Amino acid sequence: MKSFKLKSVLVVLFLSIVFVSCNNDDDEKPVDNPVLKAALVTGISGPATGKVNDELSYEVTYVVDNACGEFDKISEVKIGTVTGLQVIAKYPTGVCTQQVPDPKKTVYKFKATAKGTFDIKFKKSETEFITKSVVID
């Protein structure tokens, strides 16, 4: 009888170890969802004139909150009734040890399908845009 109890305990112990060791949650990496936040633009540089259907490139300078912030995308934004663009930066969820941010740059591509004067507006602050005008011939 003692032999049967000992064997039963050993079998249960063995099965417990097998189930615990087969768990694959150790291989999973934690999901690092970055925080997205609007970055304020400090300058736009690029051509003042262009042709219809030509792609123009504008260098957009923006400031992030800390040095870990990186460019994510450019999106539309409204301030009051005026529509413009804003730079969205992404920040890692962990602690950032680099606290002094340098101004960053990205390129915005603009292509007009008609002649005229166009204003490229980027969010400069919570209440205003910085504007670059381009004349398309």
Tell me the layout of helices and strands.
Layout (H helix, E strand, L loop, with lengths): L1 H20 L13 E11 L3 E2 L4 E9 L6 E10 L2 E10 L12 E8 L4 E8 L5 E8 L1
Parallel strand pairs: 2-8
Antiparallel strand pairs: 1-3, 1-5, 3-6, 4-5, 7-8
Number of strands: 8
User: What is the count of DSSP helices, taking H or I runs of 4+ residues?
Assistant: 1
The end-to-end span amounts to 99 Å
Extract low-pLDDT stretches. Answer: none
- What is the helix/strand order? HEEEEEEEE
Average the pLDDT over all residues and give the rounded result: 87
- Beta-strand level of the residues, as a percent range? over 45%
Question: For the largest beta sheet, what order do the strands appear in spatially?
Answer: 4-5-1-3-6
Rg result: 28 Å
Query: What percentage of residues falls in helices of 4 or more residues?
Result: 10-25%
Description:
The structure is a single chain. By secondary structure, the chain is mainly beta. About 15% of the residues lie in helices and about 50% in strands. The protein has one helix spanning about 1-20; strands spanning about 35-45, 50, 55-65, 70-80, 80-90, 105-110, 115-125, 130-135. The strands form 2 sheets. It has a 5-stranded antiparallel β-sheet, with no helix packed on it. The protein has a 3-stranded mixed β-sheet with strand order 2-8-7, with no helix packed on it. The protein is elongated and about 95 Å long. The model has no long low-confidence stretch (mean pLDDT about 85).
